[in-house]
Design goal:
The radius of gyration is 33 Å and the shape is globular. The longest helix has 21 residues. 69% of the residues lie in helices and 0% in strands. The two termini are 36 Å apart. The protein has 44 helices and no strands. The chain is an all-alpha fold and 819 residues long.
């Protein structure tokens, strides 16, 4: 952690307390002087100017000592805790405990939060001390159970397993809906103590109360491990068999088969072990556990089908052994189907031998023309030529396949790939020829409308504007239901604007706005019209934003009147923000709240998401849940409920809904962090807000399939690079779950991208999502820096949608919050 901000915060706290308490006592100045470095103390000292002797004046009546209000400081501490700045929160909580006149309830709250922050900050010894004191001194406090849970987890981190078990067992003495979670942790602690019998009892108790399939699988694995430690092999195998009979995941099935094989190996039942390893290899070649099983079989010299062996090696990234296995298979199987050539080609290419890969693809094409992978072999051959930089051979291969096999299912794919390759190489005439050939030969294919659109873009890039307009017009006429009709209409208006035909351009762009006013093309069309330019830059605001008050009773009343006007709500039910008792007291909601209170956020979110989906067709419940989740700080579920409410409503657009509802769907959360870091970096705050909504829906615990973490979705390796460049001391990946640090890193990274791309927001966002190298490549391929062309050139789906979505959301945020 950076200790300077925490130190400065402490100084600010003391100064604030000095203003709240009488300065005549002098103890605040003394405390501040003792904490400031010597140089700082000297700088802060002011030498008094001598004054002439004057007639004494009557002594003034002493001002009554003001009673400090702890609420302000405690709110600040809770805000720091919410933001993940636990050191700053700890500083204030400690000061409050020692120096503020707290009532009993406040003192209990502060002590609990201090222990909680110590735990979250990794100071487990301090956490145990504080939490033990809290539990002892405040036996009836509302946070008693969470305190016991955090105390148990602190003991775990210190390796004090007996104490952890005692804390968990004490937790269970009071009513709970998460006993399954507690017993599982008790079982884990007993396992650490090598008390496998007690662990099994705890795991079975947890299993009896578990409802989530993933938890049941996890518990059965743990029980199998405990049984194995007792050499109770049959019981362990029973647990694995139960998992195998339930799970549908291929990779998990392979893993369990591998585990079962290892158990039989322990029993010296080699035949059974080999049978299970072979089952994993033959049934699930893509799973890494199949590769581990293969290694066991090879070590034991058990015969394995060479083709299957090659597949497992290939999917595990062992390309050399894969090729060797495929070659052995080919030599031993004179009448093989040719599949081995295909996979050998893939393995050679992945290993960096494209010429050998091409040879294998040709072997399949020439010697096995009836193979079902014939078309794929042609496409992979062409792709390999392209990866070698041999544009001419790649194009020739694509065309030759399409010409020789026009009825093949992949013929249209070959022409499409040829066109895309030509476009990426800026060979626009080749691209146009391929796109138009595709439309003429396969007018009913899924690629046809997009081929017309991209052929039009290639004409546009060559300044052949009339030809571009003709092709885009054909999309509306021939493919009126295609997904890219709006894009074609937008580009028609943009082109007419570029040509100077203002009235025709206005007609075309207004048609886009009327069709889908809040789509990317709708909001971009509006900006083109406003700028009277064919290539306006990103629409930046003033930098000042207007946030509505936290409590907006008038806006909320308007929203509820709107909801009552169209929702089919029973007459006996009153529209209010509060959840009804049947939901408020439901086991799912109460379990979610308890899980959240003890820090099991992922498990809590699972319960809350299920609750949200149970009522997804009830507009009143979606409204109530949106407010409920918002007040809990679960901003992702809140936004999803608000969006679902809008979907259920008759509102033709977001703008047609009440402002209160609009802001529920497009809120500004963590405003102190987002706006503060934006100001510090000189960035548009609404850009940061829109990016954060797109990245995580303001969920600080968000994790992506790619491993990105937190509010602004920082990938751990990127976080390490940012920490090195900023620099940021003592960085560790877990810091990315702290909102204040995640936002600091994310804003810094975006600012760096904007600097690298000379302030081009489109390119910076593409780089933020797709990598700066890719963004550079897309920029270099964009003529005259046209931002709309840049967006269309991006050749990966995710970055394209990312840039479009942030643009769309930014415009919404600008309308809702801009000064």
């Amino acid at each position: 952690m950076n200790k300077i901000p925490a130190f400065r915060l402490l100084c600010n706290v003391i100064l604030l307390l000095g203003m709240l308490l009488p300065t005549s006592c002098g103890r605040w100045e003394t405390m501040l002087s003792s904490l400031l470095p010597a140089t700082a103390t000297a700088t802060a000292t002011v030498t008094p100017t001598p004054t002439p002797t004057a007639t004494p004046t009557p002594t003034a009546t002493p001002t009554p000592t003001p009673t400090p209000d702890p609420t302000v400081l405690l709110n600040a501490a809770q805000q720091h805790q919410r933001n993940g700045d636990y050191a700053a929160a700890i500083t204030i909580y400690e000061t409050a405990l020692t120096s503020l006149p707290l009532n009993e309830e406040q003192r209990a709250e502060v002590q609990f939060r201090l222990g909680q922050c110590a735990f979250l900050n990794g100071d487990y010894a301090r956490a145990t001390t504080v939490l033990e004191s809290f539990i002892l001194n405040h036996p009836g406090a509302k946070h008693r159970q969470p305190a016991l849970f955090f105390l148990a987890r602190s003991y775990e981190n210190l390796g004090h397993w007996e104490q952890a078990i005692t804390a968990y067992q004490t937790y269970l003495l009071e009513p709970t809906l998460i006993a399954d979670q507690i017993y599982e942790r008790i079982g884990d602690a007993y396992e650490q103590l090598q008390d496998h019998t007690a662990a099994l009892v705890a795991y079975q108790t947890a299993l009896d109360g578990a409802s989530d399939p993933n938890q049941t699988f996890r518990l059965r694995e743990k029980m199998a491990t405990a049984y194995l430690a007792q050499k109770a092999y049959d019981e362990a195998l029973d647990q694995y068999e139960t998992i195998l009979s339930t799970t549908q995941s291929d990779s998990y099935r392979a893993q369990i088969l591998y585990y079962m094989g290892q158990v039989h190996r322990e029993l010296e039942n080699e035949d059974a072990a080999h049978s299970l390893f072979l089952q994993a290899v033959e049934s699930y070649p893509r799973a890494y556990a199949a590769y581990l099983a293969l290694l066991e079989l090879v070590q034991d010299e058990v015969p394995v089908d060479e083709f299957q062996r090659g597949l497992v090696d290939y999917y595990a990234g062992a390309y050399g052994p894969a090729v060797e296995a495929f070659y052995r298979y080919i030599e031993a199987t004179p009448h093989h189907t040719g599949d081995a050539h295909y996979y050998a080609g893939l393995a050679f290419r992945a290993a960096g031998s494209p010429e050998l890969a091409i040879r294998e693809f040709e072997n399949l094409i020439e010697d096995h023309p009836a193979n079902e992978r014939l078309g794929q072999a042609w496409l992979e051959k062409a792709r390999t030529y392209a990866s070698m930089g041999d544009y001419a051979q790649a194009m020739h291969t694509y065309r030759l396949f399409a010409d020789n096999y026009p009825q093949h299912d992949l013929a249209v794919e070959a022409i499409w790939r040829a066109a895309r390759l030509a476009e990426s190489e800026r060979e626009y005439q080749d691209a146009i020829a391929a796109y138009t050939d595709l439309v003429e030969r396969y007018p009913r294919s899924d690629y046809a409308a997009e081929a017309l659109f991209r052929a039009g873009l290639s004409h546009y890039r060559q300044n052949e504007l009339e030809r571009a307009l003709t092709l885009w017009q054909r999309i509306s006429e021939e493919y009126p239901t295609a997904d890219n009709v709006l894009a074609a209409q937008f580009w028609t208006g943009k082109t007419l604007l570029r040509q100077g035909f203002l009235l025709s351009a206005e007609t075309a762009l207004k048609a886009v706005i009327e069709a889908q006013p809040e789509s990317y093309y709708g909001v971009r069309a509006r900006d083109l019209l406003a700028a009277r330019s064919a290539s306006p830059a990103w629409p930046t605001g003033t930098g000042n934003i207007l946030l509505p008050p936290d409590n907006d009773p008038a806006g909320q009343a308007e929203a509820e009147e709107w909801l009552a006007a169209w929702s089919d709500i029973p007459s006996e039910e009153q529209i209010t923000a509060a959840l009804p008792d049947e939901i408020r007291e439901s086991a799912r909601l109460r379990r979610g709240e308890e899980l959240l209170a003890v820090g099991l956020r992922t498990e809590a979110m699972r319960e809350f998401d299920a609750l949200r989906k149970e009522h997804e067709n009830n507009p009143l419940r979606q409204y109530q849940l949106a407010l409920y989740f918002r007040d809990l700080g679960l901003y992702g579920p809140s936004i999803r409920c608000a969006m679902q409410l809008l979907k259920l409503s008759p509102a033709s657009s977001l703008e047609a809904a009440p402002p209160f509802i609009q802001r529920l769907a497009y809120p500004v959360y963590f405003s102190d962090l987002l706006l503060g870091e934006a100001a510090a970096s000189g960035l548009d705050p609404l850009l940061i807000v829109a990016l954060t909504r797109q990245e995580s829906l303001f969920d600080e615990g968000a994790e992506s399939w790619a491993g990105a973490i937190g509010l602004m979705q920082i990938i751990p390796t990127t976080g390490e690079w940012i920490a090195l460049k900023m620099p940021w001391p003592d960085y560790q990946t877990s810091d990315l779950y702290r909102p204040y640090l995640n936002v600091k890193f994310g804003v810094w990274y975006l600012a760096r991208a904007l600097q690298d791309f000379n302030g081009n927001i489109f390119a910076a966002l593409a780089g933020y999502n797709g990598g700066p190298g890719n963004a550079n490549r897309w920029m270099e391929a964009t003529e005259e820096g046209d931002p709309d062309l840049f967006v269309e050139i991006i050749d990966r789906r995710e970055p394209t949608l990312y840039v479009k979505e942030i643009y769309r959301q930014y415009v919404i945020y600008r309308r809702l919050y801009s000064e």
